[in-house]
Amino acid sequence: MADATKQAEQAGQAGAPGQREPILQVRNLVKHFPLTQGLLFKKQVGAVKAVDGISFDLYQGETLGIVGESGCGKSTVAKLLMTLETATSGEVFYKGQDITKLSGRALKAVRRNIQMVFQDPYTSLNPRMTVGDIIGEPFEIHPEVAPKGDRRKRVQELLDVVGLNPEYVNRYPHQFSGGQRQRIGIARGLALNPEIIICDEPVSALDVSVQAQVINLMERLQDEFNLSYLFIAHDLSIVRHISDRVGVMYLGKMAEIGTDTQIYDYPTHPYTQALLSAVPVPDPEAREGRERIILTGDVPSPANPPSGCRFRTRCWKAEDKCAEEMPLLAVPSLYEGEDTPAAHESACHFAEVKQVVGAA
Amino acid sequence: MTTTEKTEGAPGAAPQGGKKTGPLLEVRDLHVEFKTRDGVAKAVNGVSYSVDAGETLAVLGESGSGKSVTAQAIMGILDSPPGRVAGGEILFHGQDILKLPESERRKLRGPKMAMIFQDALSALNPVFSVGNQLGEMFRVHQGLSKKDAKAKAIELMDRVRIPAAKQRVGDYPHQFSGGMRQRIMIAMAMALEPDLIIADEPTTALDVTVQAQVMDLLAELQREYNMGLILITHDLGVVADVADKIAVMYAGRIVETAPVHELYKRPAHPYTRGLLDSIPRLDHKGQELYAIKGLPPNLLRIPTGCAFNPRCPKAQNVCREDIPALHPVTEQDGTELDGRGSACHFWKETIHG
């Protein structure tokens, strides 16, 4: 436990922009969903290990991207940070305070500062509420942010900030397009002046030409309000574009974490390499020189993950050691103490740089 | 692999249907409209494209551009009413299939042309085993017995590399993972070795690692059977990987056609250029993304003139008045560029400027 914390601190230093304090520190976070059998006398027969001990830091004003395939636990991480789910074990420190242990008024105060933008702009807005009510609802819960008389004005300001016409306050969500709805979702997230916004696949439901608009908006807002983003997505190109640091998750564990250059140009974990090589690049010229690593099979069930390294069942480097020993998330010994971009944390026994994305 | 070797059409090479006259499929000036409570939505407004045997045509467009509706019209599975083919021809092996009676078209679907849908979970019937659904193709179209059809189904599942096909033939769709379900969809489309396959966003719902597996499989089978493939997608990355030629659609029209390399190097339509500029790239970290302003048009009220004009940085008065035809695109010295066209009044400036 203790050395995991130390490792995570090192990770923070490696990628920390300047000497800033982390605003959010996640330590050995675990979430197991119990699998039960029997109707009346439920007995636990196992657990889905959705998140199985991950640690990372989030700094003020930075964007940390989390990537991984479906089922790797990235959305569960989002829910845990929002305290929408209770962690099985582990800590989440917000400004030094462990929010997993909070309840009542203290929790409410913390939640004001951590807001969320959801994936699907069609289901995350209540169809029976006007836009004004949707964006203004956070003020009902936290009346100290905007006094009653001010609210309408504040809502209109927020609409203006996200690039919507302030006169739309009385419209309903169905009168807006997908991109506009996502802007409404972002305005709602901004309403309480939070410090951290957790974005769970915020643009994956949008059309290509609209995605760019929303991403640009999010980057502008980050500069304007000094927000920290935890940006969860499966689209690796978008994550690279928006993130300062990137964490790659596989089956509830962090496989590799580092700055965007470290991860994309000097990946050391085989899973990251495979993931990157599989992304189609919109340039037929570039595809010719690229090596594609095509993984076989599917992600194993998180209820029954492989022993040792979780990726070993699909890994081309796997040896006996991988089945026996779980690799720790640490700077690979090959690069230890060296000043190369390859010296970032990677949870693989045989971590070695392999460039899979055409150098730019 | 147990199957016999068939003609190996080299991917990307010129189509080799030299003996037959005309392409495998040719769509000419197709119009499709939908009657809605608020008026008539013109989903497809004069689309023309063609596919040869062994060739991959990618149809690229955003939601509402009419790319899927065109495919449904080709397959004859348009929801009608409210949908209606309002004009145009669809020539398959030189024959206008729009004029055929429904019973004849039904005989085409399966043995001659087949479709792969985006969402395999909702395209497969949850109450029948996959073996049953795969075998249905053989029972209905070839009159095989249940036993023979099952054997064929197992063979097919082997072809698309589903592990332990024999044991899994009785499993139900929910028992398979997303990638495996998509393989079953592919197997079903391939079952009767059709000449044309239409794949509508076949990998959109899949993770990247699985997406690569499925696209590879599709390309391999296409080569083996020398099929024509229409790949409908919004993903410029996927297109770059597999297509021979591309048709870009916007508001029910084709705005640009080009061979794949050409399109990415030198787009000749402002919409295509905007799309290419607005996607973040994996291989370099850019500055701010270029964003096409505004939204795709409402199909009930398509702007006059060029449908893209309200969003176009180059729009002039002529763009608001005249609908641009699909001009053939030429080099600056006038040499024609094979297969290239752009429906923009200012294509010259866009490609050469």
From TrEMBL, chain A:
Superkingdom per UniProt: Bacteria
Entry-linked InterPro entries: AAA+_ATPase, ABC_transp_ATP-bind, ABC_transporter-like_ATP-bd, ABC_transporter-like_CS, Oligopep_ABC_C, P-loop_NTPase
Keyword Zinc-finger recorded: no
CDD domains given in the database record: ABC_NikE_OppD_transporters
Keyword ATP-binding set for record: yes
Gene3D superfamilies: P-loop containing nucleotide triphosphate hydrolases (3.40.50.300)
Gene Ontology molecular-function annotations: ATP binding
Record PROSITE patterns: ABC_TRANSPORTER_1 (PS00211), ABC_TRANSPORTER_2 (PS50893)
ABC transporter domain segment(s): 24-276
Keyword tags: ATP-binding, Nucleotide-binding, Transport
Stated family: Belongs to the ABC transporter superfamily.
Name of the featured protein: ABC transporter ATP-binding protein
Organism, scientific name: Streptomyces hiroshimensis
From TrEMBL, chain B:
GO molecular function, one term: ATP binding
Pfam families the UniProt entry points to: ABC_tran, oligo_HPY
Region annotated Disordered, chain positions: 1-22
Recorded topology in the membrane: Peripheral membrane protein
Residue ranges constituting the ABC transporter domain according to the UniProt record: 27-276
Compositional bias (Low complexity): 9-22
SMART domains: AAA (SM00382)
Compartments in which it is found: Cell membrane
Keyword set, alphabetical order: ATP-binding, Cell membrane, Membrane, Nucleotide-binding, Transport
Keyword tRNA-binding: no
Keyword Glycosyltransferase in record: no
Record InterPro entries: AAA+_ATPase (IPR003593), ABC_Ni/Peptide_Import (IPR050388), ABC_transporter-like_ATP-bd (IPR003439), ABC_transporter-like_CS (IPR017871), Oligopep_ABC_C (IPR013563), P-loop_NTPase (IPR027417)
Source organism superkingdom: Bacteria
Family in the record: Belongs to the ABC transporter superfamily.
Protein name: ABC transporter ATP-binding protein
Organism this protein belongs to: Streptomyces hiroshimensis
